[in-house]
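Input (structure):
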C-alpha cells in the first residue's frame, strides 16, 4: 500500500495551509497509523518564513507544534507528486493548474472537497479495491471528472477564510472552522485510503 500524499496550499504558507497540514497529519495518522500519510505544504509568497504567531499558538493549544515550519513555494513537481491538493482559495487552484494542468483534477479548496466527498458517499460500504494514495488519487480524479476550467472560473467556489490579522476571538473561530473541515476531510480520506 502506497502512502497517501497530501499537499495543503494557501497564499503565503504561513497560516491556513500550515494549520490544515498539522491537523490533517494528526487526524489521519490517528486513523491510518504512522507512515500512512505524508503531508506537505506550500504557498505563493516569500519562502523560508515562519508561521504567524497566532497559528503557532492555535496549534499549540491543540497539542501540535508547527514552530519549525518554514514557508515554501508551490512548484509543478510538488503538485505532481500529490494524490490530493487541498487549497484555501479558488485562486490557488487556478495557479496550481497553471503550473501543472494535470493537477487541476486533484486540486480543490478544502470546503469544495468536502462538498464533492459528501455527494460521493452514496454507498459508504462500497469496495474501493486497492488502498493507499493510489486509490485516493483515482477517487479524487473521479470526483472532479466533470469539472471544466471555464466553469471553475465562473462558478462560486467555497473558500477557507483567512484569519491572518484578526482579533483573537475571530482568529480562534476561524481555526475551529478549519479544524472541523479537516476532521471531515480526514474521515473521507481515511475511508478511501484503507
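Output (sequence):
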Amino acid at each position: 500500500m502506497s502512502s497517501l500524499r497530501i499537499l495543503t496550499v494557501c497564499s503565503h504558507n504561513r497560516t491556513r495551509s500550515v494549520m490544515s497540514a498539522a491537523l490533517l497529519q494528526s487526524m489521519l495518522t490517528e486513523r491510518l497509523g504512522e507512515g500512512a500519510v505524508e503531508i506537505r505544504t506550500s504557498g505563493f509568497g516569500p519562502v523560508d518564513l515562519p508561521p504567524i504567531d497566532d497559528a503557532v499558538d492555535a496549534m499549540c493549544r491543540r497539542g501540535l507544534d508547527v514552530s519549525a515550519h518554514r514557508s515554501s513555494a508551490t512548484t509543478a513537481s510538488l503538485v505532481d507528486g500529490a494524490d490530493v491538493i487541498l487549497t484555501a482559495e479558488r485562486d490557488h487552484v487556478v495557479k496550481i493548474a497553471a503550473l501543472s494542468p494535470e493537477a487541476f483534477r486533484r486540486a480543490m479548496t478544502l470546503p469544495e472537497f468536502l462538498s464533492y466527498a459528501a455527494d460521493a458517499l452514496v454507498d459508504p460500504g462500497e469496495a474501493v479495491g486497492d488502498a493507499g494514495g493510489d486509490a485516493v488519487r483515482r477517487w479524487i480524479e473521479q470526483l472532479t471528472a466533470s469539472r471544466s476550467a471555464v466553469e471553475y472560473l465562473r462558478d462560486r467556489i467555497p473558500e477557507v477564510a483567512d484569519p491572518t490579522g484578526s482579533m483573537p476571538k475571530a482568529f480562534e473561530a476561524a481555526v475551529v472552522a478549519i479544524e472541523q473541515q479537516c476532521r471531515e476531510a480526514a474521515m473521507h480520506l481515511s475511508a478511501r485510503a484503507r
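Notes: Residues 168-193 form the longest helix (26 residues). Helices lie at 16-32, 53-60, 76-80, 90-99, 110-120, 133-143, 149-154, 168-193.
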